[in-house]
Write a structure and sequence with these properties.
The structure is a single chain. This protein has about 170 residues and is mainly alpha-helical. Helices cover about 45% and strands about 5% of the residues. The protein has a two-stranded antiparallel ribbon with strand order 1-2. Strands 3-4 form a two-stranded antiparallel sheet. The longest helix has 13 residues. The N terminus is likely disordered.
């Protein structure tokens, strides 16, 4: 939301000024979210109690708390905010998700996705190669079919060979 719109907005909207959604705005600053929304033409066209920027943070929080419903995720997202915070219905949150769409999240991913470890970080590289760790690869789940056994082979266990994964 532009600064001129924020200046004349109501207290319910001002609560979402930059820096107020503390945990997510530390990692993804409001300026970045606004730039992505402008670039994808997803910024709201009128003053709303649930601005587009808050919608992006809400969608990210939905991904963090996938086992919770939208209202509980909203409660977690706004728990630390002081003042009058909107209490949207399930329908309002669904409409917010639809209004934002996928384009801003796709563009945000493209803007920030990349390896966390820098080449100078210890353990990130061995000579010129980036080191990679696979944890739990023995839990690969593929159907037990002849083509998969031909491609992946089978695992030798104490009681004999077994395909990946074990037949059920």
């Amino acid at each position: 939301m532009s600064e001129s719109v924020m200046a004349g907005s109501s207290p319910a909207v001002d609560v979402f000024a930059p820096g107020h959604i503390d945990e997510l705005t530390r990692i993804l600053p409001a300026e970045l979210i606004d730039a992505v929304l402008d670039e994808t033409r997803s910024l709201q066209r009128r003053l709303r109690s649930l601005p587009s920027r808050v919608g992006v943070y809400f969608l990210l929080a939905l991904g963090l708390f996938e086992h919770l419903g939208a209202r509980l995720v909203w409660a977690k997202l706004t728990a630390g905010l002081a003042g009058r915070v909107p209490a949207p219905s399930e329908k309002a949150l669904r409409d917010l998700r639809r209004r934002i769409g996928t384009a801003p999240l796709r563009r945000l991913f493209e803007a920030i996705a990349g390896p966390l470890g820098q080449p100078t970080t210890p353990g990130v590289r061995y000579r010129r190669w980036r080191t990679v760790a696979f944890d739990g690869c023995n839990s690969l789940a593929v159907p037990d079919h002849e083509r998969n056994r031909a491609w992946l082979g089978s695992v030798s266990y104490r009681f004999g060979a077994q395909s990946i994964p074990a037949s059920t």
